[in-house]
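Hey team,

Filing this mostly as a record. A colleague (T.K.) asked me to run one chain through the structure pipeline before their review meeting, and I want the input and output archived in the tracker in case anyone asks later how it was produced. No errors, nothing strange. Just documentation.

Input sequence:
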Amino acid sequence: MALMITDDCINCDVCEPECPNDAIFMGPLIYQIHPDKCTECVGHFNEPQCQQVCPVACIPIDPSHQESRVMLQAKYERLQRALRKD
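Output structure:
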């Protein structure tokens, strides 16, 4: 499952640099997470780093992007292959 940032976001800027997949970006009003890049840090860390540093706990699982740990690992591997091609 990808994560999402809720309207409780205070734009503190701590989550974006923590994302190993560059999935977090500044949207029109608050930070957002690109679901095609979010692996919940599977392949990099044991826990999502953005959730660990968020001071207002506004980064839950995105219910519209249900993925198993196996699917998240496959996404991580696909993203890594794409990086190696660049």
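Quick notes for T.K.: The CA atoms of residues 42 and 73 lie 6 Å apart. The domain at 16-85 is CATH 3.30.70.20 (Alpha-Beta Plaits).
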